[in-house]
Structures are given as C-alpha cells and as structure tokens.
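Milestone M4 deliverable, item 7.
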Amino acid sequence: MLDLSAVGWIVVALCAAIQGAAKTGIPGIGILAVPLMAQVLPADKSVGALLGILILGDLFAIVYHRHNAKWPHVLRLLPPAFLGIMAGYFALKAMADKDLLKAIIGAIVLVMLGINYWRNRAGGQDARIPTQWWFASGLGFMAGVTTMMANAAGPVMIIYLLAMRLDKVAFVGTAAWFFFVVNWLKVPFSANLKMMTAESIKLDLMMLPFIAIGAFAGIYFLKRIPQKAFKAVVQILAATAAVKLLFW
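Output delivered:
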C-alpha cells in the first residue's frame, strides 16, 4: 500500500484534503475521494485507508462543531445505521471476488450522485421530502450500508438533513457527530475484513497534514464559498471516476 507512484501519493493527499474540507465546512464533496482512492489502491484497501482518513477528519470536525450538533437527529439515525453497517459487513464478507468491490463502489457513487440530482431537480433546499419515522429509518439503514461498503453515505445524509430544514452550521455539525460515531463503529468490522490494517493506519497518519489543510479550508469556506457551480464540477468529476471504476 505504501509503494505508490508519485501520482498515487498526490491522489491520496488530495483525497485527504478533500475529506478534511468535507468534514468541517463543504458537505458533499467527500464523494469525490471515494472513486479516486480506488483508482490508486486495491478496492478493498482503499475503503479501509479512506476510513482512517475519515476518522482523523472527524476529529477536526467535532472539535470545531462541538456545540453545533442536533442530537435528536443523530440518535434517531444511529440504530438503523448500525443495522446497515452489519448488512454491508456480511455482504463484503460473502464477496468472493474482491475486484468486484471496485465496480460496486462505482455503482454506489453513481446511485448517490443520482439521488443528489433527483433532490436538486425536485427543488433543492425547498424539495418536499418525507419526514416520518420510516424516512429516517430507511435513510439511516442506507447510510450504514453505503458507508460500510464504500464510505459513500454523504449524499444520503445530505438528503436527510435538508429534509430536517437545519441551518448551515447545524447541518454540518450534526453530520460531523453522526459520522464520528458511525466511522468508529465500522472499525472492528473493517479490521476483521482486513480492509483496515496497520499499513493503512500508517498511511492515514502520514496524510494528517493534508487532512488538517483541508479541514481549515473547509472552515474558511463554510461562510464564503458559492457552492452551486463548485458542487456541479465535483459531481461531474466523481461521476467520471465512478464510471471508470464500473466499466474499466
């Protein structure tokens, strides 16, 4: 895993910075790192390495947003999310062809981007989205499955938090604390699958400066960045990388 080309190191460092920014202030862009990591690392190892990066990014996020979470939403989502994590774990354990995971990651990313596109077409921030208990349970379970299999639950959380009509700071703070808990819940499952290893943790720690740069950039841009065009470019790049994973 540590025997990367120069381009590979650049991609991993870029992914670390992207996740840092996604954690503290620019929700949604983290989806771009998922297919990029799978381009330069074996698919299963990329999921484990990215999990470590996410956990380190979570630490910056929860310190900065320590008072900004809406805990009723976090607690409502955690039980179905844990069931989803278990479902994703057993699906990965039963997968004989580990190369198939690369295609699955690509498919998950495309589905998540499709959900985001549907939400925007339906009215963006004003989209009429259900808020009943089954909606939270369904999205919580989906978030658990997608985060266990591909670290790609960001768009699912975006849909839920938008439905709750949270302001921007509460939105980011609630997502930060939810993923902090969920990502730690994934650690024993990922270690059992040998996706998260001592080598992947070493790589993650080497990326800490880039995660920090991204985290501080996310804080800076939280109130300043015009996100519409930026998100469009990010989603196009993520879709391109996902298609490459799916078909090549």
